[in-house]
Amino acid sequence: MHQDLPVRDIQPNGNGASRDPRLLEGVLANVPLFRGVAQHQVADLAARAKAIHFRRGATVCGRGRCLPGLYAIAYGQVKLAFRSEDEERVARIVGPVETFGLAAAILGRPAPYEAVALDDSLLVMVPSAAVLQMVENDPRFARAVITDLAERTMKLLAEVETAALHGGVQRLAGYLDALAGNGENRNCTVRLPTTKTVIASRLGIKKETLSRLLRDLAHRGLIAVEQREIAIHDRPGLAALAREEA
Amino acid sequence: MHQDLPVRDIQPNGNGASRDPRLLEGVLANVPLFRGVAQHQVADLAARAKAIHFRRGATVCGRGRCLPGLYAIAYGQVKLAFRSEDEERVARIVGPVETFGLAAAILGRPAPYEAVALDDSLLVMVPSAAVLQMVENDPRFARAVITDLAERTMKLLAEVETAALHGGVQRLAGYLDALAGNGENRNCTVRLPTTKTVIASRLGIKKETLSRLLRDLAHRGLIAVEQREIAIHDRPGLAALAREEA
DNA sequence: AGAAAACCTTGACCTAGGTCAACTTGAAGC
DNA sequence: GCTTCAAGTTGACCTAGGTCAAGGTTTTCT
Questions:
Q1: What global pTM score does this model have?
Q2: Which of A99, A181, B169, B211 is most open to solvent, judged by the fewest CB atoms within 10 Å of its CB?
Q3: Is the pLDDT assigned to residue A79 strictly greater than 80?
Q4: Residue B208 approaches strand D within 7 Å at CB
Q5: Taking Cα atoms as reference points, which of A75, A148, A79, A83 lies closest to residue A112?
């Protein structure tokens, strides 16, 4: 796990940005993307990176704005969402040790989504130039980037598939099953990472519909809901439901 | 353009596979992914690759089967589609000079989609091992792979966005506009790359709905449809429609 | 603690797009 | 030229999920 890094204890300075190299290096070293990169290289990267603190609800990057680089999350949570006037669709909820903006940073393209902090969050931003340079100079890092992007591609394809082939209940069931992780305990309890409204948007449905679907699953005896805590009573049943047709 | 390569004239041998190094090298050299790779390296790759011919309707790779490597299209067309019993959703229509299977090949994962030839097609398959090795040995190629994957990621994100935020008409309008390319001729005529049924699935709607939507657009004076030929009468109007809300 | 602001739930109703079924058209083989 | 078959069209109807409106419940802020 990543909890071995006491980043929560480190206070970023008041106006939200920090450059404490210890903090930065520690955070980056724990990001899977940088596993397999020599320590001094990580230090280099850290020297050029910046830690920025965002209050819950603050916008990390508006839609269409150019991302200054790759973001890694030290603590907190960020949602990446598409929007259009009165419509919002959450593409991904990014948590500690994860990164976002890699593809956009590499191509130097504007962000296709907007990024908003769901909780008070500490992000480490590695400037595009630093990432690009490291891609050129360190084949191991280049390799890590390739793996990361390939994995993202597969995830997105899976996303498109479920969106196209499965209905709301199935997607919800699949999501809960995924939340429960790989442990195969028949019944366990999971906690939704954020508000139901955001989860709904992440699942491509409206909060009202999520509400009804959760009620249905509860009726069927598959789960029990108590606010953000969801007790899973029949994991295999849930998994089976997720695999069903439209 | 890619038409400078007379691959259509080269006959693959009867049982569908060929190893003529000239053919293979020529095809690969024209694939953007291999631009910037030294010629002898391409020759190396070609030596390990295989050309395979598929009749229209033949399956290149069943869903969930492991892809033996990266596929490049010399001529013809392949659809990548998700399926589930009686449901099919086309994720991408791949044409000459394009490739598919890069992400899966790199991760050694089974294909998330099935690949079926839409026309008689000649594909060149570069084994995963060869791709991986080249990633390790040639930083320029590694860089090209990174760019390609990043671009694919952005495309998929755009896909998810339009699927989520735009209705059928908008998606269709956007698709037609994209087909018309970057030329800004106010009226031009485009040809659908394949049957309307497949196009519909690519757009995430049913053929019946596509039929009705095309009729609507024609009514509105934006286009005129004659079989696969679509005359665009008001390009800006079409583009504007594509950008509208849900 | 108390007020204000999010968040969630529920019911009544609506709509984009899907489903089913009949019919037309066009291309492919004999 | 006639048959066959796949592709496309059209109409009547259906349904998953969205929209609107009205409460109810947590949080959050002062």
A1: 0.91
A2: A181
A3: yes
A4: yes
A5: A83
